[in-house]
Amino acid sequence: MRKIISVLLLSIVAVGIYLSVSHIPFGAPKTKVGGHYVEQGMEETGAANMVTSVVVIYRGFDTLGEVTVLFIAAVGLAAVLGIAGQQGFPREPASFVLRNACVVIFPLILLCGTYIFAHGHLTPGGGFQGGVVIASAFVLSYLGGRERRISKRLFGSVESLAGLVFVTTGLIGLAVGGYFLSRILPNGRPYSLLSAGIIPIIYIAIGFKVGSELAGIIDNLIEETK
Amino acid sequence: MILIVSLLVLLMLVGAVAACVFKDLLSAIIAAALVSLIAAVLFYFLQAPDVAMAEAAVGAALTTAIFVVAIRRTNRYEQ
Amino acid sequence: MTFLENYVFYVGAFGLVLIGLFTILVKRNLIKAIIGLAILDTGVNLFLISVGYLARGTAPIYTRAEQGAQPMVDPVPQALVLTAIVIGVAVLALALALAIRLYRHYGTLDLRKITEQRW
Amino acid sequence: MVNPVLLIVVPLGFAFLIPILSLLSKKAAKYIPPIPLCFNIVVSLLLLPRALENPVVVSIGGWQPAFSINLVAGPVGILLSAVVAFVGLLVSIYAVDYIREGATDRYHMLFLLLLTGATGVVLTGDIFNLFVFFEILCISSYALVAYAGDKAGIESAVKYLIQGAVGSSLLLIGIGLLYGLFGTLNMADIAKALQSPSSLPVFVPMALIISGLGVEAAIFPLNGWLPDAHSSAPSPVSAILSGIAIEVGLYAIARVVFTIFGLSIDSTSNFLMFLAVLGILTLLVGEMCALGQNNIKRMLAYSSIGQMGLILFALAMASSYAVVGGLFQLVSHTLAKALLFLTVGYMTYRTHSLDVSALAGIGKRMPITSLAFTIGAFSLIGLPPFAGFPSKLLIVRAALATKECLFFVLIGGALLGTVIEAAYFFRIVQVLYFKDGNTNIARKQVPAVALIPIVIFVILIVGIGIYPKFITGLLSSAAAELLNRVDYIRNVLG
Amino acid sequence: MKPQLILLIAFGGAFLTYIFGKISSKLRDGAAVAISLALVAIFACLYGRPLQESFYWGFLGLNLSLRLDALSWFFAIAIVSLGALSIIFSLRYMRDRERTDFYYSMMLMVNAAMLGIVLSNDLISFYIFWEMMSWCTFLLISYNQHRALDAGMKYIIMSMIGSVAMLAGILSLYVSFDTLLIPQIASSLATASPGYVLFVLVIFGIAFGIKNAIMPLHTWLPDSYAEAPSPFTAVLSGMLTRMGVYGLLLITYVIGGMIGGTGLGSNVSKFNYVLAWLGALTIVVPTFIAMLQNDAKQLLAWHGIGQGGYMVLGIGFGVATANSLALAGGIFHTLNHAIYIVLLFMSVAAVQYRTGGVRDLNSLGGLVARMPVAFVGALLGISGLIGLPLTNGFVSKWMIYKALIIEGHPFLAFAALIGTWGTILSVYKFLHNMYLGQLPEKYKHLEKSPFSMQLPIAVLSSAVVLFGILPGIPLRVINKICTWLGFSSLDVTIWGFTSETGTLNTINLLAAIVVVSAVVWVLFHRAAKSVVVAQDDNYAAGAYVPRDKYHYTAGFYEPLFTMLRPYLRDVVDEFYTALAGAVRKSCGAVRRIYTGDVGNYVTYIILFLASLILVQLRWRPW
């Protein structure tokens, strides 16, 4: 019964969406805002990766909101799990191969993540992707069953500091340039690592923030308040 | 090209249906991870390497990990 | 074939959306519902990216070699999707944490049985 | 140079600061939220004179409006951000004492972020940015509802989360469709490009966006989460959710409907009529559900649904009187409902029960709190001389001024809802004062730090009720801004 | 003196009393009495000096203003005097109760709100004060706890229904004429369509009908009267309920433009006939229901409804036929009723005070010996209630009868007359069961009522007689009101009035009655003395019979009771109870929407979306 109703309702929704989507031709150029970014973005921001310039410069506010969302999730998750009764969780020791492979791979993944967010303005990738990669390094380390863990305080401090860096960068822009997140650093030479104004700073902050938040989430989920 | 894409889309939808019907939640999670992975490939085809990267890292790896942790803490099977 | 070309991504995207919604609507297991949410999110993201696609466009990244040679796809939806993915994973993580706590309280994840809060 | 962006960024910065500060001192966290909220009130007041002349439009990063996110601090935005900051400030003062259990620094972070999200929603001029701030608002409220970690809280949070997530996915699909159709995300830019709201390709995104936002705004069939979440959250959170979160959702709907889609009462679509009917339906369902309710917080939650219905009805009439009335109702409901939840918070804390009958005799044990509750309840019913009266008056007047039969019938429904509302609120007042109850509750007032916000709310409710001019000037320019689409586009795009 | 100053004193006094109460109860009592007496003095000074409208507050772009004219003075003086008397009465009555600060400040607040109502010059201030009066009343009715809670709920719900109807009516007037000043509306409404006028009449009729307890809307009244603290019951019955009459008069004034000019629109006339018939119904049925009551306050409460019927009959009929005699009768009856019903409630309250709250007629009796002043009050009160000559009730009822008969409406007159018979039967029971008959053993040592209770009773008793012998005093004022309302003037003398429809001269009556009573007294004096026989030494088959078994006031109208009971069920009340039950049930059903299952909630979301799309698809398939 419930299935029939659901299918019925969803098919109506599908028809409605089809009617609207049929007016959005697939693959046709939509020059309005995107076109402007593609044409002007390189000069205006100095970043080669247009997605990065949109994420950090043009729609930097969204990004600030987004790291906030992740921050909320991390804090909220800790709040939700943190008060629970303290039932421990026996951990099976991982196999020898896995454990030792983790030891080797862990720093490599960290390095890879750092590379991804440091080069966000030049190549695909950026703060989020790098942050997620860093977090996955921690997932791996938990799979490896290592007991050595980074303290929550460190996670928390990194999170806060990264967030504050983002906000402060924006506020300095407001003080200097009159707009929040305005470009206070020169665009520099295109295609070089130290270019594109404030993008690297913000992306590094985001990378640390996302990485530490996701790692913190995983950490909390697995450990649940020891 | 279009055929490959169609095939991938088909596979993705099948994966989604599988994620919906599997009684074993672990299998469902793997199916959902498959959906994310194929979506990442499709993002790549759509000239969105950034998103593909994020989707692969988040959808296929991280989310799956969280799900697995969650079902270890709860119940592996539906009902 | 042209239909396929025009609509295959949309079909894939909204297929995921509908399957995700169907899962949430019909399945009584909370984890299943959350899986549904994940699929729904993926579908929405795929849709957004398809909206920004440009036929025969390249990724919106300038390289030294072929600057401005080919049209680029719209970078805006990609930026949006990056945001949306992260938001999605945040919601998902919170949902699963809540599911763990809920299981501890009720010993079940069957949503039809967890109806203490009603009326 | 005061910039509206400070309203969002400064609280955000303070929220990021809390983890570091709480490393230094565990107690520091609870004194943090009032600081940025005070700051926000000051900034809002400083911006007010400029905003009344012309909406303050600032862009992030300094690009041309359509090419970057911009904030539009018009009268509506300033009004609502001031309300958010003000109510948030009072509730955060209240929470200094009330929130004792668990990791309180997390509570204060989430609380501050929730308010940041609400401020962002009311100030932003970009629809995707709206979505992002909405998510901030929603996700922090999911976490806050579950904050106490009890059975009811977790269950409600799960349900809230699922519905909220579905809603925001629908919203995102709608935004995607709009972007596909018009190639821009700036609300003014979309509005400029959008001609007729009733053609199907445009209608579908509108339906999606309204359903998505409607979940947060608690419109009738979309509000299954509300009674659970508002009743099982800690009381200050309930106050914020009922007093701010849903109002902000409703504001977002109004903004989308009026500004982006440009619906007006004389446009060909009778969608606004539909919204008006929906509003009254919401009102009646909310009030009817509240009538038989024994759980006091749940009753207040249902009453919030009812009030939302009334506000939606007023906004859907889309005349300037009606919108003034709707915004007035919004403000008075915010004050009254926050007050009610705050008072009920300590009452239930003392009686250890959410049952209405457990409140018997509280009037003698906590006289000031009970008096405050009574005044809040009277204001919600719309009795003079409290703040709810002028707002209800304006709405009824606007409905009668439409000279349309449908609206006469609808306002009849609204008045019926008022009677039902009176029935259950008066019952509680009786229980508070005139029922002998549990005598072993200590005769103990609320702690002073929690009494301050309560008393301020009472003063405001009575003050606005007696002297509505205090805010009507601001409200009428806010209504004008909300309804005048052409000016909005011109102000933003230049 | 500006009217707002008066209100300021009244409301400020209410607050001050509360604050004083926190300091000392003596101070509070003194303040309450002083403020209420001050108000009486102020209004006494204002006699014959109407105050022009004065704007006192801007509210949402509306100018709120006050004024004092003949009608409002008439009501105001009644309000403040009765208010002062009941405050004085409360001094002892409420002494040992809890939360007396609240009680006194609410009493003063109710008085202030009523003053506000009668002083209002625009409908919004009218509404504001009306609502304040409603919720103050609610709080006071609920004061006695227990059963009073239900009574309070009944009252406030009906009152809310009335006031939302009134709000709709007021704002509809505002939207139509863009003003809320009563005189301006009066002039604007002359040009309105008859249908609209009828709408206004009906909607205000509902609002005021509920307050004045016209028959199908009366059901809140008996319980509220019975359960409220007695001094407040006096205020409630005397003036508060009669704010409905004031409202009806105001509406009469508002549509008054039509009375003076081209005559009434037929709609208006019809409406007022309906009102008159409802008034007649309200006279007959409650009076007989009153007969069946065993609770003294319930009995009086039902009479309160019935007497309200006379007022409505008089005013409705007067307006329908443009007959100033009936109208004046209705207004005068309002005043008279207020005086004697307050008197009656006070005498009951005096008994209650001494007997510890007993008001069951079957367990009282013979109190005349213990509480003579209360007895005299009750006697004069019921005389007024019945309408015996030389008491005030007689004059007003007589005016109404006269008008009805002369205008050729014998059925209405007959209804009014039946009402009087019923009244006689029931109030005799009241008087007898309470004061006459055998004194129960446990009340043998009751003290007489304290001075602060005797004083108001004495004042009111003398008022009953005074207005009965010299009806010209209030009638002069009433005559002014009638002319102000656009009716023809009556020829009033101090002893009564003369008019083409009939003449009343109480001096003749007085003379006749003095002569007759002298004769009767002489006869009785000459007649043989009766012998007092102890009742308890009757022979009872050898068994000892406890003295209380002889208490012959129980089951006073038992045969009549069994006969009438099936016909006099309170059908209306049952209907409302059923309605309330149905509402409650349907609310319970609506609540089931929230099943607690998230799947359902998400279904609602999708359903909403789908129906939006579907509707749009169906509307524009092209």
What is the domain total for the residues of chain C? Answer: 1
Helix content of chain D: over 70%
Residue-averaged pLDDT of chain C, rounded? Answer: 85
Please identify the top-level CATH class of chain C: Mainly Alpha
Taking the alpha carbons of the first and last residues of chain C, their distance comes to: 52 Å
Number of helices of chain D: 20
Q: Based on CA inertia axes, which overall geometry of chain D fits?
A: globular
**Global outline of chain C:** elongated
Indicate the structural class of chain C. mainly alpha
Give the strand order of the largest sheet of chain D, numbering strands 1, 2, ... along the chain.
1-2
Please report the total strand number of chain D as a whole number.
2
Contiguous helical run count of chain C: 3
Q: If you average the pLDDT of chain D, what whole number results?
A: 88
| Rg value of chain D | 21 Å
The protein's oligomeric status is heteropentamer
By helix and strand content of chain D, what is the structural category? mainly alpha
The helical percent of chain C reads: 55-70%
Distance between the termini of chain D: 21 Å
Topology of this protein?
The complex is a heteropentamer of chains A (226), B (79), C (119), D (494) and E (622).
Chain A: H1 2-21, H2 31-45, H3 50-58, H4 60-82, H5 96-118, H6 127-143, H7 152-177, H8 199-223
Chain C: H1 2-26, H2 30-52, H3 75-106
Helix pairs in contact in C: 1-2, 2-3
Chain E: H1 3-23, H2 25-45, E1 51-59, E2 62-68, H3 70-93, H4 100-119, H5 123-141, H6 147-177, H7 182-189, H8 194-211, H9 221-227, H10 230-240, H11 243-254, H12 256-260, H13 266-291, H14 296-321, H15 324-355, H16 372-386, H17 392-406, H18 410-435, H19 451-469, H20 472-484, E3 491-493, E4 496-499, E5 502-505, H21 506-526, H22 558-564, H23 571-591, H24 598-619
Antiparallel strand pairs in E: 1-2, 3-4, 4-5
